[in-house]
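[Q] Does anyone have a clean structure-token version of this?
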Amino acid sequence: MSIWSPQDVVRDAVRRQAAGLDITQVAENVAEAARRKRETSAEAHRDPWTDTGTALVAADPHRLAETWSAKHTDWQRIHTLLQTTGHTAYEPDDATGTQWAREREDYRQERLAAFAAHREQRRQERAATTVQLWLTPDQAGPLQHAADRAGLTLEQLLAHAPGRPRRG
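[A] Here you go.
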């Protein structure tokens, strides 16, 4: 499962594919995306029990339909942009596309930072040493009394204890 929706993936891909294309080429891509959108939508609504699937690995028809719908929407957005601005070719630095790319990159950086923090926490947890100390009531009594006087738990008191107890 991906952290990116089909729309996120498509926006990024279409911006790269459309770079340098003129309005005629973009219109061809709009038509192709519309055709694929219709086909995949019909495929997604077909009865799965009558599938004669010839593919080795079947793609999720609903995800494929979402993807082509998003492609059609984004190609239409680019076509409209070229029509309204009068540009001869598409440049991926349009305001909407650039904002989406920036948001996507910001989100990616947040996820990477969260993953790194999680990984570091897990590393520290694995490196932490857990000690079990079994004490008789006679041994635990004075330690518990000292912990109570210091306002600490027994675990906190033992964590601050010297490495080797002295006998004297």
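[Q] Thanks! Anything notable?
[A] Residues 130-168 form one domain.
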